Amino acid sequence: MRQLIIGFRRAVAATPAAGVFVLPGQQHTRLVSRTIASSAAAYIKSSTTCSFVRTATLAQGVKMLDPRKTFTEDFFFRQLFDEQSHTYSYLLADITTKEAILIDPVLEQAKRDAQLIKELGFTLKYALNTHMHADHITGTGYLKQLVPGTVSVISQSSGAKADKHLVDNETVKFGRHVLKAMSTPGHTNGCMTFVVEEQGVAFTGDTLLIRGCGRTDFQEGDSRTLYRSVHERIFTLPENFRLFPAHDYKGNMETTVAEEKRYNPRLTKDVEAFVELMNNLNLPYPKMIDKAVPANRECGLYDIPKEA
């Protein structure tokens, strides 16, 4: 509007009589009209563009904050943490049947997890690993002793021993609930993302972290494969799906598909830039890898405490 007023004042100043708005003829009238119209058009164009930008930004924000799915009343969820390895484990259960599963258990926390399962009255059906970890020893072997009847589970492509091996899109059930295993290699060949579609959640292991991703410089890692796994498998889930990683080092607990598609500093790059970045991280050799990988190949059976 300010531009419209300025244009009008300029038209007035252009008239022959100072301080008086005179229209000496049809030609001058057209000149003034064109000046006013031009200023108005410039203002409207500028305002409309700004409005469109604000609307697009607002729409992105609204989409990113789409309501999450509410857990059904018979679905139990508990996020657990190991401070030493910064690993998240996840206890899921059917509250009606009491059947439970535990994702990515840690050896040092197996007693804690077994006690919690006992206190809640659950029966641990499966202990699953998203992949063969290199930064901690899995708790599945120990849990099989602490909670008899527990079935250990991992990807068929992992190279690790287990009671049950999963292939892409295979499902496991606990009570009436269904968990689908999606193959998402790149950090390792055997990485899987576990999805519970009804609850709108996915457990991404080390493939996708909160504002990051797993490293690709050891243990069959491949940057292009990881990029493809994230963009073709995880980022194609509904945008309001909640994502829970196997690790976090900054105190974050969860994210969403929409958030990572917009804010992940690595995976918002094009594939070539991503590969270049991953090839030049220069990360230190994992402290636990020489101990953890051999143990995890055997379902975490190495180094189980003697009192087990």
Structural write-up:
The structure is a single chain. The chain has 308 residues and is α/β, with parallel strands linked by helices. The protein has a domain of 208 residues: Ribonuclease Z/Hydroxyacylglutathione hydrolase-like (Metallo-beta-lactamase, Chain A), CATH 3.60.15. It contains eight helices and 14 strands. The strands form three sheets. A six-stranded mixed sheet has the order 1-2-3-4-5-6. Strands 7-8-9-10-13-14 form a six-stranded mixed sheet. A two-stranded antiparallel ribbon has the order 11-12. The longest helix is centred in the N-terminal third of the chain and has 39 residues. The radius of gyration is 29 Å and the shape is globular. The N and C termini lie far apart (79 Å). InterPro entries: Metallo-B-lactamas (IPR001279), Mito_Persulfide_Diox (IPR051682), POD-like_MBL-fold (IPR044528), RibonucZ/Hydroxyglut_hydro (IPR036866). Homodimer. Monomer. Interacts with TST. May interact with RELA. This is Persulfide dioxygenase ETHE1, mitochondrial. It comes from Anopheles culicifacies. It catalyses: S-sulfanylglutathione + O2 + H2O = sulfite + glutathione + 2 H(+).
